[in-house]
Write a structure and sequence with these properties.
- By secondary structure, the chain is an alpha+beta fold.
- It has a single domain (4-236), classed as Nucleoside Triphosphate Pyrophosphohydrolase, CATH 3.90.79.
- It contains 6 helices and 11 strands.
- Strands 1, 5, 8, 9 and 10 form a 5-stranded mixed sheet that branches. Strands 2-4-3 form a 3-stranded mixed sheet.
- Strand 3 (48-59) and strand 4 (65-75) form a beta hairpin.
- Helix 2 (27-40) packs across helix 3 (76-84).
- The protein starts with a strand and ends in a 12-residue tail after the last helix.
- The model is unreliable at 240-248 (pLDDT under 50).
């Protein structure tokens, strides 16, 4: 399947109650699969995560391009077997936000997932599956907040210190819906990588095992990069625009 890349002006995310038939119908399989995965990786935790039962494009009254998502709670073990089986229920989506951290010299920061992660060894922008802490009092789901939290937890970087892009780049790869916002930091790539590595070294159980800076399309042949990451970086690294510095 060809990846779909969308540019949207904002995300509109709502929390909903949803009965996921797949989770009930495959409950025995889910339990067996989870036990197998836990034996292989005891660090896995069966917490609550948010998946989407609706993803739709819309246009606002102001002409804004909007991606609307309805998200519901489920256990990580259910998400894991659904993912590992190749997304058998196509009515559900794995929607998440990612910060594309870009250094002053145009290089992008990638985190190498640690051994406790369900995607151990792969290269991603720092991110995580949204969870109930991202649900707002009014029923909205704050993917901007999820992005900033995951960036801080995994790298020690503060999203408030960067210049954030006005829009989102959304990449749809089968049931994955990656909502990516570029964050431009006024620092060279070596300094950013060093800061993240120092943070990881000070953590008792870091989520990442290393930080990498990618600045050329030739680096995208790395098998540890998932397709949607390659698609985003291939397009971005082809741009020659200079990054303006933050004012102040």
């Amino acid at each position: 399947m060809t990846l779909e890349i969308l540019e949207v002006d904002r995300l509109e995310c709502r929390f909903v109650d949803h009965h996921w038939g797949f989770a009930k119908e495959r409950s025995d399989m889910i339990e067996r699969h989870w036990e197998e995965r836990r034996r292989a990786n005891p660090a896995l935790y069966d917490g609550l995560v948010l998946l989407a039962c609706r993803v739709a494009r819309a246009t606002g009254e102001d002409g804004a391009r909007i991606l609307q998502m309805s998200l519901f709670k489920t256990r990580f073990s259910r998400f894991l077997v659904w993912r590992d089986l190749g997304w058998p229920d196509k009515s559900v989506y794995n929607c998440f936000s990612m910060p594309a951290v870009r250094a002053r010299d145009g290089a992008y920061l990638l985190g190498e997932m640690g051994p406790s992660h369900s995607f151990a060894g792969q290269l991603y922008f720092p991110c995580g599956t949204p969870d109930p802490s991202d649900i707002l009092a009014d029923g909205g789901v704050d993917l901007d907040g999820s992005l900033a939290r995951e960036l801080a937890e995994e790298t020690g970087l503060d999203a408030a210190e960067a210049r954030a892009a006005a829009n989102w780049t959304v990449i749809v790869d089968r049931q994955n819906v990656a909502c990516i916002k570029r964050l431009d930091f006024d620092a060279p790539s070596q300094a950013l990588a060093a800061k993240v590595r120092a943070f990881l070294a000070a953590e008792r159980a870091p989520e990442l095992t290393d930080a990498h800076m990618i600045s050329s399309p030739e680096a995208l042949s790395d098998a540890r990069l998932p397709p949607f990451m390659v698609a985003y970086l291939m397009r971005e690294l082809g741009r020659a625009d200079e990054i303006p510095r933050r004012a102040g």
